[in-house]
Amino acid sequence: MTPAWSSGPFRRRALLLLAAAALVLVVSLLDGCARDGGDADRPGGSGRTTVTIGTFGVFGCKQAGLYEEYERLHPGVTIRESVIERNDAYYPQLLTHLAAGSGLADIQAMEVGNIHQVAAAQGDLFVDLGRAKGVRRRDWLPWKWAQATTRDGRTIGLGTDIGPIAVCYRKDLFRRAGLPTDREAVGRLWAGDWQRYIDTGRAYTRRAPAGTVFTDSAAGLYNASVHGYAERYYDRRGRPVYANSPAVRTSWDLAVQAVRAGLTARLKQFEKPWDQAYANGRFATVACPPWMLGYIKEKSGAAGRDKWDVATAPRPANWGGSFIGVPKAARHRAAAIELAVWLTAPAQQARLFERQAGVPSTPASYAMPQVRDARNAYFGNAPIGAIFTTAARSIPLLVHGPMEAQMGTAFTDVGIPQVEQQGRPARAGWRAAQKEIENAVDG
Amino acid sequence: MTATTTVVEGAPAGQAAGRRQGRAGPGPWRSRLYRWDVRCSPYAFVAPFFLFFAAFGLFPLLYTGWASLHRVELTSPGRMEWAGLHNYARLLGNDFFWNALRNTFTIGVLSTVPQLLMALGLAHLLHYRLRAATFWRVALLTPYATSVAAATLVFVLLYGRDYGMVNWALDAAGIGPVDWQNGTWSSRCAVSSIVVWRWTGYNALIYLAAMQAVPDELYESAALDGASRLAQFRHITVPALRPTILFTIVVSTIGATQLFGEPLLFGGAGGQKGGAAHQFQTLGLYLYEQGWFNFHLGRACAVAWTMFLILLLIAAAGGLIARRLRKEG
Amino acid sequence: MNPAGPRPTTAARRVVPAPRAGRQLHGGPLVYAVLTLFTAGSLLPLVWTAVAASRDNARLARTPPPLWFGGNLLENLGSAWTDANMGLALFNTTLVAGMVALGTVLFSTVAGFALAKLRFRFRRALLLLTVGTMMVPPQLSVVPLFLVVARLGWTDQLQSVVLPTLVSAFGVFFMRQYLVEALPTELVEAARVDGASSWRVVWHVVLPVARPAMAVLGMLSFVQAWNDFFWPVIALTQENPTVQVALTGLGRGYVPDQAVVMAGALLGTLPLLLAFTLFGRQIVGGIMRGAVKG
C-alpha cells in the first residue's frame, strides 16, 4: 500500500486549516479574557463611561433624543441601548441574568405584569431607588410607586409610562352606520359602562358598512375592561381570585357577548393580520392606550388619514406600562442610578409623551404644555393630552400578584380565542382558561 | 522526534525501522514510548470532545436531572426544594403533557412521512440522466440553507387567514379559506409543511447518493428479466437503500421529537402555547412554556428528561429493527 | 428477489429490454415537469421573501398579496442593516459559524476515529454516551449552560456561543459511522506496524480518507451554527449579536415594519444562499459523498 503521507499538498492544506482553527480558538479565548479584564479595570476610571440600558419593545427614549441630551449634559457618559422586541423573550432572559449575576445591563426595564414578581423574588438584587438622590416619591402616581416597592419598603424600579385607555374609532364608519362622529358625543354613547359599548356595537352592526365590524378582538375588549378594576386576579390580601372576581367575570361576559353578537373581527392583537386589518379598514373601534396611536397611524397609513379619532373610554383603566431599575450587579452603578432618575423625572417623561410613547407616571408632567396641550393631527386633532391624563387620574389603585401575567394570557390567549376563533361554547372556553391557570400556578 | 535515529536490535516485529527519517526503529525507550502511545492515544483523541462535552453537555444534563427532582422556579433558580418524583408524577396526570406528547407524535408523522416519501421520489427522478443536473440539486437544497426563523416568518405570511397568499389562491380556486392557525388539523399541517419544505431536498440528496451506489448491473439484469421500472424501484432500489432510509428515519425522528422553532414562531405572540387550544403545542414548546413562561424550571426539567427517555426508547427500537434487517439482508 | 440471478441469454430478450431505472436513462418531459414543480415549491417562499422585502408595509397588507417586486428593496435592506446592527451581526456569525465548523470537524474526526478503529476501555460506553447525547432536547440545557457561561464571565461574548456548540454528538457519531466503513482497518494497522505514532496515523491515514465526510460535517455545522437562534438569543444581546439574534430585535421601533423584517430575514439568509449558488456543485457533491456511509 502507498501511505497517504506522501501526498504533500493535502498535508500542507490540512496543516494550514488546523493551524487556523487552533489559532482562531485561542485568539477568541484570549480576546474574551482580555475583554473581561479590561472591563474590570474600567469602572469610573479615566475616560468615558458607557452606561447600558436593556429594554423590550420601544421606550422611545432614544427616539425622543433623551440619550443624546443626557450625553451632552454629562460629557464622558455614553449610553447604549440593547432592545429585545418582545417582553416574553426579554423577561426570562432578565431572570436568568439576575440569577447568574452576569450579562446584566446597568439599567434594566421591567413590565408592569412582571414587576410584582421581581420585587417579591429578586428584589434584593436591585438598588433601592427610593433613596437615590433627586428622587421625590410624590412625583409619581401612588399606585405606580407602590407596584415597584417590596414588602420591606425598598423601591426597585422607577415608573416610566402608564397606559390609560381610550377608544379609537373611525369617524367615517360611524357616520355610515348612523352613529354620532363627534368625540364628545361618541364618549357619551358608552360613558360609565363597557356594556353600553357593546350596545353601541350592536347598533353599529345593524347598519354596518359592508365588510366591516365594530371592534378588532374580544381579547382587546376583555383587557380594556378588566384593567379598570382594582382587584383582578388577586385580592388585596394576595389571594388568587381569578375564578370569581367581578373584574374577570364581567369582562369575560363582555367578551363573550361581543363574540356572540358578531362584533369582533376575530383578530389577535399585534399579529400581522391585525396590522393588515388596519390597512383595510376592517373594524371601527379599538380600545387604545396612548402608545397604540402611533401604531394605528402607521398601520392605517395614508388611507386612514382624517378618519380616526379618539374618545374617552367607558371606564378608566390602565393597560401596560413599565419601570426601570438598576441591578446591584451593574457595572456602573452610580452612573446608572443618576441616569435612571433623570430619565424618569417629570420633564423627561413629558417629552416622551410628546413623542407618542406612554403617558407619564408623574402627574407633575400633566401640567406641562407638551402634555396638557398635546393634540394628534392624524386623529382629527384630538386633544390626546387632556383625554389621557384625565383617564390617568381616575385609575384606581391596582392590586397586583405574582402570576397575573400568566392568568391574563390564559383568558386572552386561550379562553377567549377558543370561543372567538375556534367557535367553542363559552363554557368550554371558560373552563379551558381556568384549567390553564391551575396548570400555570401550581409548581 | 527525529532525535534518535539509531537502529536497535530487537525492535518489535522488526519492520521498516528507519526507512524514513522520522520513523526511526523503536529502541527500548522508543518502544516504551510506542506502547504508551498506543495505549493512551485513544484517550487523547476522545479527550477534547469529552472535555467540552463534560462542561457543556454532561453537566447541564445531570444538572437538569437533579433539578427535575426539585421544586425550582426560574424567578430564583438558586433556590431548590427537594420534591422527589413529584414533577414526574404531575406530568403523568397532566392533560397538557399528554396533549403535547400526542401532538409531537402527530406532527412528527405528518412531517416525516411525506418528507421522506417525497425525498425518495425526488431522488428517483434526480437519478435520471438530466440536463442541468446540478441546478436541480442545488435548487432543491436551498430551503435547507434558510433558517427556521426566516422560513417560518414567510410561511406565517403565506398562511394568513384573511390576507395570506395560500387562502387567496384557495379562494381563487373556489375552495373556501382555511384558518391555518386555529384549525386543529390545518394548523398541524401548516407547521409540518414548514418542516417538510426545509428538509425534503436534503434527504433527497442523501437518497440519491445511496442510489448511485447501487451497481447498475442489478438494474440491467432486472430489466432484462422484464421487470418494470416500478418493480425495479421497489425490488432493487428500496432494499438497497434500507440502511440509508433507516438513518434518515432516525435523524428525522429525533428532529421531530425535539420540534420547537417552527411551531413557536408559527404561533406568533404566545406561540409557546401552540395555539389557543394547544392544538400544535409540541413537547418542546410545553417544556418551554413551563420553564420560561410559567417559571417552573423543575417541571420543565422533568419534561426534558421524559423527552430524553422517549428518544432513548425510540433509538433502542430503531436499533432492534436495524439488527433484524441486517440479519434478513 | 434475486438481483444477482443468471443473465438471460435469449436474443429476443436482448432486443426488447424493459426500461431501466439506472442512471443511463434520460429523463422524459414528465420527470422535468415534476422536478420543476418541486423546484418552484422550494424556491418560491424565498423569492417571495424578496418580493415582500421590496414592498412597503401598506402594500403587504392588501389583498391580493404582491406577486412581483416593488421599488423599496434597497431602502428596506438599508434600514434592516442599520436597525439590526447587521454588519457586526454578519461578521460575528461568520466568525462563530466558521469556528464552530472547524472545531466540530476537528474534534469529531479524531474522536470518531478513536471510537471507530481503536480499542480502549470505555469505548462502547463513550459511544453510547455520545449517541445518547443526540437525544437531549436542546431547550433543556439552557439554564445550567447559562450558569456555566456566566460563571466563566462569557455572557455577551462570542465564545459563549462557539464553545458549547462545539459539543456535537451528531458530529462524532457521523464521523464514526463514516470511518467504520470508509477506513480499512488494515490501513491503520499497516501504518502502525510501520512504527507510525498515533498522531501520524491520524494525520496521514485518517484525515485523507475522512476528507469528504469532514467537508460535509463542516458544511452542516456551519449552516446549523449560522441558523441557530435559541441559545444565542439567551447568551448574547443586541450589542454583540449574531444574525439570528439581530433579527429578534428587528422590526422594533414604534411600529414593526413587516417589509423591513422581511428584508432582515433576506439579509440573514443571503450569504448562505450565495454560497449555495456558488459552491452548489461542491456542497451537493460533498453531502452525497459523505452521506453514502451514513
TrEMBL record, chain A:
InterPro entries in alphabetical order: Bact_solute-bd_prot1, SBP
Gene3D superfamilies listed in its UniProt record: Periplasmic binding protein-like II (3.40.190.10)
Name of the featured protein: Sugar-binding protein
Organism of this sequence: Streptomyces cinnamoneus
Automatic annotation (TrEMBL), chain B:
The keyword Membrane belongs to this UniProt entry's keyword annotation: yes
Chain coiled-coil ranges: none
Annotated TM spans: 40-63, 105-126, 138-160, 302-322
Subcellular location per the Swiss-Prot or TrEMBL entry: Cell membrane
Assigned GO CC terms: plasma membrane
Main location: membrane
Region (Disordered): 1-26
Annotated SUPFAM superfamilies: MetI-like (SSF161098)
Compositional bias annotation for Low complexity: 10-19
Residues of the ABC transmembrane type-1 domain: 101-318
N-terminal signal peptide: none
Keywords (A to Z) from UniProt: Cell membrane, Membrane, Transmembrane, Transmembrane helix, Transport
Membrane topology: Multi-pass membrane protein
Domain of life of the organism encoding this protein: Bacteria
Biological process according to GO: transmembrane transport
Family, similarity comment: Belongs to the binding-protein-dependent transport system permease family.
The name this protein goes by in its record: ABC transporter permease
Originating organism: Streptomyces cinnamoneus (Streptoverticillium cinnamoneum)
Phylogenetic placement of the source organism: Bacteria, Bacillati, Actinomycetota, Actinomycetes, Kitasatosporales
UniProtKB/TrEMBL annotation, chain C:
GO biological process: transmembrane transport
Keyword Hydrolase part of the UniProt annotation: no
Coiled-coil region(s): none
Record domain ABC transmembrane type-1: where: 90-279
PROSITE patterns: ABC_TM1 (PS50928)
Cellular component, GO, one term: plasma membrane
Pfam family of the protein (one): BPD_transp_1
Superkingdom of source: Bacteria
Keyword tags: Cell membrane, Membrane, Transmembrane, Transmembrane helix, Transport
Keyword Transmembrane helix in annotation: yes
Residues passing through the membrane, by range: 30-51, 89-114, 126-149, 161-180, 201-223, 259-279
Compartment list: Cell membrane
Membrane topology: Multi-pass membrane protein
Family: Belongs to the binding-protein-dependent transport system permease family.
PANTHER family (UniProt xref): ABC TRANSPORTER PERMEASE PROTEIN MG189-RELATED, ABC TRANSPORTER PERMEASE PROTEIN MG189-RELATED-RELATED
Protein name, entry field: Sugar ABC transporter permease
